[in-house]
Each structure stands twice: as C-alpha cells, then as structure tokens.
Specification:
With 445 residues, the protein is α/β, with parallel strands linked by helices. The protein contains 13 helices and 14 strands. The strands form two sheets. An eight-stranded mixed β-sheet has the order 1-8-10-9-11-14-12-13, sandwiched between helices. A six-stranded mixed β-sheet has the order 2-7-3-4-5-6, sandwiched between helices. Helix 1 packs antiparallel against helix 2, helix 3 crosses helix 8 and helix 3 packs across helix 13. The protein is elongated and about 90 Å long.
Length: 445
C-alpha cells in the first residue's frame, strides 16, 4: 500500500525527536506537543484493523437486511452490541415509514387491441379490478377533465407537468374506476404515487410507445372497453431504526463544543446480502468508533448507522429533521461511508451534493495526500445519506469507490468480494481526516 513509506517516516521522526537537541523552552514545548500529536496519529493508524471490519461485514451480510424486517432488526441489535462492547452507550432511534408491497399480478386487456402490453405498477398502486370504457384525458390537469364525465371510466393519461399523484387524485375525485398512465418520452421509468392514499384507484404505467398505440386505437374505437386487474399490492406502516453511539468530549476547553458525524447505512435491498452496500460502511463506522474511543478531543463525535437508506434516505432524513437547531449549527462535518470495500469496484472518490469542496473534502484530500501521495478526487453525487446533512447546511461528503462493482444491488454482493486492503485504505484516510479536525491544538483555518 502507498502509505507504508509514510508510516516508516513517522517512526523515523519519533526516533530522531528523542535525540534532537532542544534549544529553548518554547521549542521544547512545541516539540513535545508535536510528538504527542504524532504519537496519537500513529496510534490511530496502527489500531485500525481490516480483519475487524471484514468479520463484521461477514456477520451482517449473511442475509439481506431490508428496512422493517426481522433481518434488519437483527443487524440493529448486533451493531448496538458492538458499540457497547467498545464502551459506548448506544441509542436505537425508531422511525416509521410507509412500506409498500408491489403487486404479484397485473393484468391489462384492451378490447380489439392486438399489440402486446407490458404494464408496470407504480409505487403505491392499489389492488383492484375494473372493466369499463377507456377515455383519454390528456395530462389529467383539472382544466383537462373539467368537461369530461369520468364516472366509472378507466382514464388514459400522459405523464408530464403535474405529478402522478395529482393526476390520480384529480380523476379519482371525478369518479374514475382506474387509470392508465403512459410515459411522455422514450424508454421505461419507475413511477410513484408518492404515498398511500385511500382515494387511489387501480393504476398502471406504460411506455410512450404503448400509450400512443392505445391512443391511436381509441381514435378508431372510441368506446373500447378495458379490463384492469391488480392483485397483491398493499401499503402498511412499518418501523426502521438508526443506531447512534456518541463520544463526548473528554477534554473541554470550550463553552460550546463542535460535533462531527461519521455514518453509514445498515440496510440493504431485498435481492442482495449487501456485503459492500453497505455492510462495509457500517463495519468501518464501527471500527472508527472503536479506535477513536480513547483519543482525547474537545469535539463530540457521533457514530451513526442509518436504516431505510435504500427506500429514500429515510433514516438519515429522520435523524437530521429531529435535530435541534443549536445542534445543527454545531455539526461541522458529516463523513458518509457507503460501499467502501469491494475489490471489484474502481478507485476511491468523494461526492458532494453541489459538486463543490467543503470541510470534509478538504480534510480527506489532505489526509489522502499525506498517506498516499495524492488527493482523493471528488465529484457530484446526491443519492446517499450525506444529502440530508448537506441540505441542512452541514459540510458533508460521501466516500465511495467508482465505478461501482458489477454486483451492485445483486445477490452476488457477498463477503468474498470484499477487499481488506480497500477497507484499510479508506479507514486510514477517514481516521486521519477526522483526527486533523478533532485534535485539540489544531490550527483553525
């Protein structure tokens, strides 16, 4: 690894500092302080253990950890126990979310229409059956449907201008029995009605080609009947959790201390055991908590694993939303660790929401230059748990390897794809970046 020379150099400096002559008391004091800092930095680097991270990943990735399932609950209990074994009092923060089960059967049949259709459910589509005349209602805006009788009809609507939810509520309010949405551009998309609602009627989503073909058919067969059948879709309230371990300042020389957050998400998608996504980030968060536990600092450090990231950053959003304003103003940085260990992924990069540098990128680039001889590059990225922190005005960045591994969100995201060398490299960069921020006698830029 590139930083072997750096570690050797630290050792040499320590040896030289013992025998170097000391000219004045001030020089002696500075030398002593520098030596203490160098000793602590060396302690941090030497304490990081890739085997610890690997073993935690191995345990967490035995099964998928979908938010709101027993498997996620087991992961939460394990993470809490690990934090506690390091001497922390861990908090489990519960939050609720709308849990949607997609249909297991979707049927769409248009009278005298011979072309094959491949209807897709929108998120929060409801189960139900409807057989009725189909009519076209444009974009489904209120002025589009003002003069139309939609009672008992199945409505064909084009995507665009307003949301699927607004279109649905507009036509449902006028008595529609079902809705067929179609895309307004080539290709397939994932559609969502946003949230559960008792007013919804059965609905499906088609491609632009399919929707326009039906529209042509309706022009030739204006009273065509459609049969729409959706089975197995359901929405329910579910619960996920964040796990929080806090290192309080053990050297206090400030009236109001800074807060620094290190985090990762512990949930996975349904189809993958998520060794890299994101048991790797979770394991690294645990390891950093272990190593930094006894390091003296006047900064509070919060180590957090978030639930339901895969469902839309729900855990991190909940965490940031419930923070008091005075705490948000004191959080100086969020280090987000997501997919940091796959041997099949590319090089380490940093991502910020606005593609601009901030305290986290500056600290990380300084650390990677110090350790590896070159700064870690950064670019734009807004699909992980650093986003809620950034939106709250907190300097935040994602640590991730790019391009992603071929096993991303797949059943093959297993422990055998994890690189201990990458775990060690990223954890060293993050730990030194954090250390350079939290050490008591740091120079304020």
């Amino acid at each position: 690894m590139k930083n072997k020379f750096y570690k050797f150099a630290i050792g040499a400096i320590l040896c030289l500092s013992v025998i170097a002559p000391i000219a004045t008391f001030a020089t002696h004091y500075t030398s002593t302080q520098n030596e203490k800092e160098t000793n602590l930095e060396t302690k941090i680097l030497q304490s990081l253990d890739a085997d610890n991270m690997y073993n935690n990943i191995k345990f967490l990735s035995k099964t998928p950890r979908v938010a709101g399932t027993q498997q996620e609950d087991a992961a939460v209990a394990y993470i809490k126990k690990q934090f506690e074994s390091y001497g922390y009092k861990a908090e489990v923060q519960a939050f609720t979310f709308n849990d949607y089960t997609a249909p297991n059967s979707i049927g769409l049949d248009v009278e005298r229409f011979s072309k094959k259709l491949n209807p897709q459910a929108l998120e929060y589509s409801v189960s139900g059956k409807a057989t009725a005349e189909v009519i076209f209602a444009g974009l489904g805006q209120k002025n589009d449907i003002a003069q139309l009788d939609l009672t008992g009809k199945i409505i064909l609507l084009q995507r665009g201008v307003i949301s699927f939810k607004e279109k649905m509520l507009n036509v449902a309010a006028k008595g529609a029995a079902g809705v067929i949405f179609y895309n307004n551009a080539p290709g397939t998309i994932m559609g969502s009605l946003g949230e559960p609602n008792k007013a919804y009627v059965p609905s499906v989503l088609l491609t632009q080609t399919e929707g326009e073909a039906i529209l042509i058919h309706l022009n030739k067969n204006p009273r065509a009947v459609v049969s729409l059948n959706i089975e197995g879709a359901k929405s329910a309230q579910n619960t996920s959790h964040n796990v929080i371990a806090t290192k309080k300042p053990n050297v206090s020389n400030k009236a109001s201390h800074d807060i620094l957050v290190i985090g990762a998400h512990h949930d996975s998608v349904a189809s993958a055991p998520g060794a890299n996504d994101d048991a790797s980030g979770t394991a690294m968060t645990l390891e950093l908590a272990r190593v930094l536990k006894t390091i003296p600092t006047d900064t509070e450090i919060r180590f957090i694993t978030f639930g339901a990231e895969e469902l839309g950053l729900l855990g991190s959003n909940h965490y940031v939303e419930q923070l008091p304003k005075n705490e948000i103003s004191r959080i100086v940085a969020n280090f987000n660790l997501d997919m940091v260990g796959s041997k099949d992924a590319g090089e380490l990069i940093l991502q910020t929401v606005d593609n601009k540098p901030n305290l986290v990128t500056e600290l990380a680039q300084d650390a990677s230059t110090q350790l590896n001889g070159a700064p870690t590059p950064y670019n734009q990225g807004d699909s992980s748990d650093h986003v809620p922190f950034s939106k709250a005005g907190i300097p935040a960045a994602l640590f991730i390897h790019n391009p992603a591994e071929p096993w991303y969100h797949k059943p093959q995201d297993t422990i055998d794809k994890i690189s201990k060398e990458k775990l060690q490299d990223v954890s060293e960069i993050v730990s030194i970046a954090v250390w350079n921020q939290i050490k008591i006698d740091r120079q304020v830029k």
